[in-house]
Amino acid sequence: xIACNCIVQAGQIxxxxxxxxxxFVNDFAERHFGTPAEISWMAIPEKSGFTAARPxxxxxxxxxxxxxxxxxxxxxxxxxLCSVWAxxxxxxxxxxxxxxxxxxxN
Length: 106
Description:
Structural class: alpha/beta
CATH class: Alpha Beta
Shape: globular
Largest sheet: 4 strands, mixed
Number of helices: 2
Number of strands: 6
Oligomer: single chain
Mean pLDDT: 93
CATH topology: Macrophage Migration Inhibitory Factor
């Protein structure tokens, strides 16, 4: 399983969009890492997240790969991940933080 944490602002992503993003993230993990995603979805309560003293509209998508990922591959994968997230949520790339970590060392 590929650990994936999705942090969003409550009330900004519909149930349908969440379902679509969960499906995409799982398919992404299977396609690129050969195993499904284990998704932890957290909605930050309204009035609990701020950017520049205004309610935040940002999302964080953080995945831990099951193998080391080269810098070139990481860039390509993050572009795909963040582009789909932006398209599905209607947010700009400036509002999305994408993270793709290598596995923890043993």
